[in-house]
Amino acid sequence: MKTNRIGLWLLAALLATGCAETRSVDQDQDWVLTIGSPQSHWARSDAIVVRTELRYVGPGTGTEWFGSSSGPLAFDLREINGTRHLEGGMLSDCRRHEMRADGPLVVGYVKPGGYSADDPNAAFYREFLADPLLHLPPGEWALAARAVFSMPPDCGTGRTVSLRASVILTVA
Hints:
The chain has 172 residues and is mainly β. Helix content is 14%, strand content 41%. The radius of gyration is 19 Å and the shape is globular. The model is unreliable at 2-17 (pLDDT under 50).
């Protein structure tokens, strides 16, 4: 009985300090997009860890898809109750790609970029994009992954796949 109380206390302490994993999933009939972080609360000094996975779950052992040569994923960053917001983009070219059912695309968070030098948040954007790690100032932040591409026969003529998943992280 004493061991169970200690285990429950430890679990409650971990949840209260934000050590619980956070993740979000979006899917259609053939694809699953997942974004997650091992914890929902981070310190300003922490290098934040985010993992994104795009998985083919349709029929057969894999499929081809058509989209940007930069890949099917783009990432967004939005300060909740704030003014800082960056959206990721993709190259507008069209290339044929393949994905096997047993070989999902797994990547970390890729910082979105692009801002005007006269934007009131330009100093933040410049510092954020220059840091090779993912550090954020205190506040609540939405980090999103978007998957956008076409199924055969080609870009724009096949069924468009458009998935979006996001997590909320708190930085203190």
